[in-house]
Amino acid sequence: MKTKLSFLSIAFLFFLDTPIWALSCDEHEPAFTHQSLLTTLRRDGFPDVMLDNVRKLRLKRMGSIKVSGATCFTLFVYTAEFDNGPGTDTHAVARLLVIKNMNYAGMYPIDTLPIGVSGNTVNFPGEEKWGNKIVFDKEQPPQQIHLNGEFRALFNKPRSPMQKKTKSE
Question: How, if at all, do strands 103-109 and 90-100 pair?
């Protein structure tokens, strides 16, 4: 009995150290419903104020980019309007949300909506010299991008000191 238990323990430890492979990564997979995307965002530290205190919240899927057998980025355009109360103007925002292997990885502030995804690139209108694309070619999303003449950082949830990085991060 102890031999069987030891063998199972070794097999289990092997699976803990093995990266999870993205089963499918294309324009339709991994699949998210509106509710499952909201659940993922809330679970993974997306700011609640950007989900709860908004009008006209829209989440549009742009596509998925597979950079390796273990990494799939799914991209959504987030648009919303914030109302600061009576007598104030409505403030509209747009963000490109990055989901990595079914987990929220961060967001980029964007001024114009992307044209689409081609290969490993999210394309935006405008001239290349001013920045009109985001290339996903590594296991992590780019920490800084260049769009419309500005450098912008990936905004992601802060990691608490008690959390450890996972093998897929």
Answer: antiparallel
Sequence spans of domains, the chain: 23-153
Sorted by sequence, the CB contacts under 8 Å of residue 77 that are 6+ apart come out as: 58, 59, 60, 62, 94, 95, 96, 97, 110, 113, 114
Instruction: Name residues whose C-beta falls within 8 Å of residue 123's C-beta, 6 or more positions apart in sequence.
Output: 114, 115, 116, 117, 132, 133
- Cα–Cα separations (whole angstroms), residue 31 to 25, 64, 111, 125, 149: 9, 10, 27, 27, 33
Classify 136 as helix, strand or coil.
Answer: coil
50-100 per-position pLDDT tens digit? 998 888 999 999 999 999 999 999 999 999 998 777 878 888 999 999 999
**On the CB side of 51, how many CA atoms lie within 13 Å of its CA?**
15
d(CA 46, CA 156): 8
